[in-house]
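haha ok so turns out i had the wrong file open the whole time. this is the CORRECT one, sorry everyone. sequence first:
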Amino acid sequence: MVIQKWVGARVGLMGNPSDGFGGKTIACMVRNFGAQAILRESSTVEIVRHPIYDPLSFSSLEHLEETAAHDGYYGGIRLLYATCSKFHHYCRERGIHVPDRNFALQYDTNIPRQVGLGGSSAIIAAVLKALMEFYELSEDDIPRPEQPNLILAVETDQLGIAAGLQDRVAQTYGGLVYMDFAPEYMETHGHGYYEYLDMAELPPMYLAYSWEPSYSGKMHNIARHRFNQGDKEVIEAVRRWAAYTDQAREAIADKDWRTFSVLMDMNFDLRQRVYGAEHLGRGNLEMINLARKHGLPAKFAGSGGAVVGFCEDRSSLRKAEQSFSEHGYGFAVLEPADYESINDAVEAGVPNGSRVYV
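then structure:
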């Protein structure tokens, strides 16, 4: 018995970073990049390390240093370990019966690291889906709106990673999702308000990203401190990001992509005013400026390291791709993904039409 579960990368299209402050966002799961969990029944519980992302041997000390600089000191294996632990704890606390069966678990991913595409949460979400199928649990056992909370708890409680719910919601639901994290609703229901949006006629989306991993925790910590202290600028920004999200939701319903594109630019401009250009990073600002040079709207796909936008003109996309490539950035025309449409391909092991295994 072999179970394979695939979860795509997440791009934030509107409202972020307000999801961390009780705001509203719209995000989309894409099939260009993804993570996969592979689970096989076994005599013992075994977490299998990835030969590339969890190395224990190196060709030289220089190779070790280069790997640490690019990938950090912790690979994806800790995500598997923590997910299994939190899953068992969750089930035990809620009286969910987990049969006495063991498994070997491994993962793979082609999501660029630490550029705001939800790479870690994609691995965790894929593992959770695999564990639920292996132990024959349904959404009656772990309801879908609660699954993002469980995925987030793996990162925050088990691993001490600062994160919000947006990635986990988009990757649990798939497709294009509107999210409202109003504190009153969250307190009453235990989760946010999540709604699928029609993505059938979305214009082409582009993604430009850095090959160099970045960490935005310090930037978010500063904003969090200001928010908790009642900083009027940050509180007003969260209100405005939420308003942009509601306007974007209407634009999607009306297929008004011009308005949506303007809102994307406004989303980033507000972020720059609140966080300060000096905290956003030279490479991030360069990507935004390159996109706008070609007449493309642009905002962060997540917390920095990648920018996303719409473009209805294919010739502009080609020119932008060449420009980003000349400046050393990756570039992709994104394909939105929902779980229904990729189901057959996932079972075949090729969810995005290209090789996912490294």
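The two ends are 22 Å apart (CA to CA).
again sry for the mixup
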